[in-house]
C-alpha cells in the first residue's frame, strides 16, 4: 500500500505516467515539464491543471529531488519485475505498446492497466503498421524536403540572375548620367576658357593703348629734355653766333608749341576699364542647379513600378520594370515563390497603398485583351481568380474592344477606344475610379471599404494582331 501511494506521489496528473523532467508550481503541484507546457499552450492563462491557480513562474526549472525519486523507483520496479518474472514460468505472450516491452501476465499486468497491452501477434502487426505509417510519413516529408531543396536551388539561381540584371541596369543608368555630367563639365570648362579669352583680349587692348601713350609721353619728355639741354649749351657758348642759335631755337619751339598745348589741355591718363575680370558669377553661379535641371531631362518618374517577383511566367517585363508583354510560346522559367501568380497572367506593382489618394496612368494602345486596377494584398495567387471584388480584385476589363467593370460585368460604353487609362484611388473614402486620360472621360468606378493594402496590377492576354506589343506604366511629370 505504501509503495502504491509513493507511486501515486510520483505520477504526473496530466499524462498519468511516472514523472519525466518534473517541475513544481507555487501551489506545490508537480507535473512533467512537457505536459505542463502543452497544457499552457492550450490555456494561455498559465493556471495549475489541478487547482487552477495562476502561476507567476516565467521559467520552469526541474525538481531534481522528484526526478531522482522517480528514476530510483523505476529502476527498483524494473529489478523486482525481472525477479518476479523469473518466479513465474509463464509463456511470454503480452506486449505493452506504450512502454515498448514484454509483460509478465502474472505480476506486471496490473501496473499497465492504463496502457495499451496486446498479444504478441497483434503487437507485431501494430508495430509493423506503426512503422509503415512512419515510413509513409517520412517518405512524404522526404519528397517535400527534396522539392523544397529544388525550389531553393531555383531561387538561388534566379536571384543571381536578378543581381546580374540589376548590375547591368545600374551601370546603364549611371552611364547615362555620367555622360551628361561629363558633357556639362566640358561645356562649363569651354565657357570658362571663352571668358578667359575675352578677358585677356580686353586687357591686352587696354594695355596696348597705355603702351602707345607711354611711347608718346617718353618721346615728348625726351624732346623737351633735348630742348632744355640745347638752351643750356647756347648760354654757355657766349660767342658771336648766340643770337642766331636763339633764333633757331625759338623758331622750332613755335612750331611745336601748339601740339604741346593741345596735349596739356586734354591729357590722356591711364585708367582701368570695367569688365576686365573673369565673370565668375556667370560661369559657376547656380552651377549645381543648372546641372540638376539638365539631369531632370534624363530622369523619369513613374508612380507605379512592376514587381517581377509577382509576375506570372506567361508575362515578360521590361528592364526598367515599367512595361509588360505576353510571352506567348516562351513561358519563363521562374521560381515558384509565394508572391508569384502561377494560374493567372497578372503582375502587381511593387508598392501597395494603405491610405491617402493616389493616381497612375497605364498606356494600353490598341492591345486587345487586358484588365487593370487594384487587388488586395491577400488575393489568391495560386488558384483561379476572377476580376471581381469578391476575389479582392477591382478593375476595368477589356476584351476585343468590349469594356466592363469586371465586378458586375456592367458594360462600359465608350465613343472611342481609350488608349491611355488614368486610375485614381481614394483609399480612405473607398473609391477606385477609371478615366480616359486623353479627355478625362469617366469610364467606371468601384466603391468598396478597403480593409487591407491595395496593390496596382496589370493582367494581359495574347497581343494577337495589335500594333501595341506591350502595356506600360506612364511617366508622371516631375514637380
Describe it.
The chain is α+β, with helices and mostly antiparallel strands and 479 residues long. Helices cover 42% and strands 17% of the residues. It has 7 helices and 17 strands. The strands form 4 sheets. Strands 6-7-17-9-13-14-15 form a 7-stranded antiparallel sheet, with no helix packed on it. A 5-stranded antiparallel sheet has the order 8-16-10-11-12, with no helix packed on it. It has a 3-stranded antiparallel sheet with strand order 4-3-5. A hairpin with a 5-residue loop joins strand 6 and strand 7. Helix 4 runs antiparallel to helix 5. The radius of gyration is 50 Å and the shape is elongated. It starts with a helix and ends in a 6-residue tail after the last strand. The model is unreliable at 80-84 (pLDDT under 50).
Let me know the average pLDDT: 81
Spatial extent as radius of gyration = 50 Å
Spans of at least 5 consecutive residues whose pLDDT stays below 50 are 80-84
Continuous helix count: 7
What string, H for helix and E for strand, traces the elements in order?
A: HEEHHEEEHHHHEEEEEEEEEEEE
The spatial strand order of the largest sheet comes to: 6-7-17-9-13-14-15
The span between the termini is 91 Å
**Number of E-type strands:** 17
Major sheet: size, sense and barrel closure?
7 strands, antiparallel
Specify the helix fraction band. 40-55%
Output the structural class.
alpha+beta
Could you tell me the strand content as a percent range? 15-25%
> What form results from the Cα inertia axes?
elongated
